[in-house]
């Protein structure tokens, strides 16, 4: 689990919020690595609030890997594991590190002090990579980590007139470039 994005306060009602980034490191692999799914664990501070997150997907850059989004359900527990099944197998080229972003929509019903952390890939069984050429299951090293905590807070916006704005101006109809 990457240290970015940093823990922060987010406003309810946001779409495609990045909660965590996973780094898949094939820099020491002798061949390209393929995987078809990943499990991620969601930790939340108040039982029953997991359903405030919907449309959770893993993205490789701008490409969504799982078109069937994960929608965390209300749970009595405050930690739940979810499987992200990819539409097509993902290949991590040997000698490279690929970063996947986990993004979710946040319900307008989510209120402070709700917190959410995606992360923890706590066992190697949560990712089952194989060699692209050999088809052999690759034994990987998993660094267990809880993602950063995203807290629900209140949002505000302040609007102020720029000091360079004109106080009053007359403009002819149909002209362009007028301030």
Name the poorly predicted regions.
Answer: none
Radius of gyration: 21 Å
What is the overall number of helices? Answer: 0
Could you give the order of the helices and strands?
Answer: EEEEEEEEEE
**Largest sheet composition:** 6 strands, mixed
- From the N-terminal CA to the C-terminal CA, the straight-line distance is 47 Å
Instruction: Briefly note the structural class of the backbone.
Output: mainly beta
Q: Tell me roughly what share of residues is in helical segments.
A: under 10%
Envelope shape: extended
Average pLDDT rating: 87
As a percent range, the share of strand residues is: 35-45%
Strand tally, please?
10
Helix/strand layout:
Blueprint: E1 8-11, E2 17-25, E3 33-44, E4 53-60, E5 63-64, E6 79-92, E7 97-106, E8 115-119, E9 130-131, E10 150-153
Parallel strand pairs: 1-10
Antiparallel strand pairs: 2-7, 3-6, 3-8, 3-9, 4-5, 4-7, 8-10
């Amino acid at each position: 689990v990457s240290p970015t994005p940093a823990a922060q306060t987010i406003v309810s009602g946001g779409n495609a919020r990045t909660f965590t980034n996973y780094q898949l490191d094939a820099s020491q692999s002798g061949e390209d690595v393929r995987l078809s799914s990943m499990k991620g664990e969601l930790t939340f501070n108040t039982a029953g609030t997991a359903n405030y997150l919907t449309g959770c997907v893993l993205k490789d850059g701008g490409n969504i890997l799982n078109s069937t989004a994960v929608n965390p359900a209300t749970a009595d527990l405050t930690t739940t594991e979810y499987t992200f099944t990819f539409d097509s197998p993902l290949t991590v080229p040997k000698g490279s590190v690929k970063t996947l972003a986990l993004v979710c929509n946040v319900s307008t019903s989510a209120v402070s002090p709700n917190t959410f952390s995606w992360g923890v890939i706590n066992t190697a069984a949560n990712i089952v990579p194989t060699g692209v050429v050999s088809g052999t299951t690759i034994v990987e090293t998993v660094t267990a980590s809880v993602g950063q905590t995203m807290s629900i807070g209140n949002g505000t916006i302040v609007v102020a007139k720029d000091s360079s704005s004109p106080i009053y101006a007359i403009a002819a109809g149909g002209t362009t470039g007028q301030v």
